[in-house]
Amino acid sequence: MKLIIQGQAKEYDDAATINNVIENEKVETPEYVTVSVNDELYDTSEFEKISLKDGDSIEFLYFMGGGCK
Amino acid sequence: MKVILPAELYQEIYEAAKAVFPEEACGLIGGTEEDGVRQIKKVYVLENIDHSNEHFTMAPKDQLAAVKDMRANGIKPLGNFHSHPESPSRPSDEDKRLAYDKNASYMIISLMETNKPVLNCFHIEGDISIKEELEVQ
Hints:
The complex is a heterodimer of chains A (69) and B (137). Chain A is mainly β. Helices cover 10% and strands 36% of the residues of chain A. In chain A, strands 2-1-5-3-4 form a five-stranded mixed β-sheet, with no helix packed on it. The mean pLDDT of chain A is 94. In chain B, 38% of the residues are buried. Chain B is 23% helix and 42% strand. Chain B has a seven-stranded mixed beta barrel with strand order 1-3-2-5-6-7-8. In chain B, β2 (26-34) and β3 (37-46) form a beta hairpin. Chain B is of the alpha/beta class. Chain B has one domain (2-136): Cytidine Deaminase, domain 2 (3-Layer(aba) Sandwich). The A-B interface holds A 7, 28-29, 32-34, 36, 39, 41, 59, 61-69 and B 24, 26, 28, 50, 52-58, 60-61, 63-64, 67-68, 71, 80, 82, 84-87, 91-95, 98-102, 104.
C-alpha cells in the first residue's frame, strides 16, 4: 500500500502496522511522539488502535513542552 | 548549526512573548536548511495550553496544523521557541528533559528585562545544550 509519511509517498506492505512504520522511518523516542493518521491524533497508548490502509497520511509530532525551572 | 532569523520574525516572537506575559509563550519555527544553515521563514505562535509562567505545552492538533501549513508553503519544521518571562535565555533542566527532538533548534527568549529581550537558540541532546549561532537580519 502507499502511505503518505510526513508528506512523502512511500510503499509499505499491506500488513504494515504503525510500529513497523515508526521503526522503518527511524522515529526516535517514539514514546514521546503523537501519531496523526489522516488528521486523527493517537498517543502512544493508542497506537494499537491504528489500522493502516492505502493512501493514509501519517505525521509524527514530538511532544513540545518545557519550563523555566 | 547556524540559524538565520529575519528581523520581522524576531519581532513576532518578541511580541508573542509580551502578549501573554507573565505566562510563557510558545510556538514552532519553520524554514529551509542547507549546508548547515537554517533559514527561518515563518513563525507559528501557538497556544501554551498550560497557561503558566513556569511551563509550556503545545497541543498536538495545533502542531499538526502548523506542520501542514509549512508543507503547503514549501518549508519544514526546524524547531520551536518559548519565552522565559522571569529567567535567563538558556534551557532549564525541564527544557532539557523534555527536548525529545534532537534535530530541532530550540529558541528561548528571555523577558527578564521586558524592554531588553534576549533571544538565544540551542541544540539540546540529553543533558547537553549547545548554543547555536543565531543571526537576526
